[in-house]
C-alpha cells in the first residue's frame, strides 16, 4: 500500500526546521536574536513615515514668537538701562548742586542762580 520510507536527508531536515518565535517582550528559552531579525519581525520598517505639514508651520510659528520675545526683552532692557542712567545722572546733578550750596554756605557767598533740572 505504501512505499517504503526513505531515509531523511540533511536538506530535508533543514527544510522542515521551523525557527523559534521572536518576541520583543518574552524570551523564555534565552535565544540570542540579532537586532536586524528583531526589527524585521517587528514590521516597523514596512511603514512609510509621513510628517504633517502642520509641524513645519508650528516650528515656524514658535521660531517667530521666540524672536519677537527676544526683541521685546532686549527693548525693555534697553529702556530700563536708559531710565537708570537718567536717574543716576539726575541724582548726581542733585549732589553736585548740594555740594555747591554747601561750599557757598561755608564761604558765606550767595550761591549762583543755577537751574536744577527736575
Automatic annotation (TrEMBL):
<feature type="coiled-coil region">
    <location>
        <begin position="74"/>
        <end position="105"/>
    </location>
</feature>
<dbReference type="GO" id="GO:0005681">
    <property type="term" value="C:spliceosomal complex"/>
</dbReference>
<dbReference type="GO" id="GO:0000398">
    <property type="term" value="P:mRNA splicing, via spliceosome"/>
</dbReference>
<feature type="domain" description="SKI-interacting protein SKIP SNW">
    <location>
        <begin position="1"/>
        <end position="106"/>
    </location>
</feature>
<dbReference type="InterPro" id="IPR004015">
    <property type="entry name" value="SKI-int_prot_SKIP_SNW-dom"/>
</dbReference>
<dbReference type="InterPro" id="IPR017862">
    <property type="entry name" value="SKI-int_prot_SKIP"/>
</dbReference>
<keyword id="KW-0175">Coiled coil</keyword>
<dbReference type="Pfam" id="PF02731">
    <property type="entry name" value="SKIP_SNW"/>
</dbReference>
<protein>
    <submittedName>
        <fullName>GAMYB-binding protein</fullName>
    </submittedName>
</protein>
<comment type="similarity">
    <text>Belongs to the SNW family.</text>
</comment>
Amino acid at each position: 500500500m505504501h512505499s517504503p520510507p526513505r531515509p531523511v536527508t540533511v536538506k530535508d531536515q533543514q527544510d522542515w526546521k521551523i525557527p523559534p518565535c521572536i518576541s520583543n517582550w518574552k524570551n523564555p528559552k534565552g535565544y540570542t536574536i540579532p537586532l536586524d531579525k528583531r526589527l524585521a519581525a517587528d514590521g516597523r520598517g514596512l511603514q512609510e513615515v509621513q510628517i504633517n505639514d502642520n509641524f513645519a508651520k508650528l516650528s515656524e510659528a514658535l521660531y517667530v514668537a521666540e524672536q519677537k520675545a527676544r526683541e521685546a526683552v532686549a527693548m525693555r532692557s534697553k529702556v530700563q538701562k536708559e531710565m537708570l542712567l537718567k536717574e543716576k545722572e539726575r541724582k548726581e546733578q542733585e549732589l553736585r548742586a548740594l555740594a555747591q550750596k554747601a561750599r557757598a554756605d561755608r564761604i558765606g557767598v550767595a550761591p549762583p542762580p543755577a537751574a536744577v533740572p527736575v
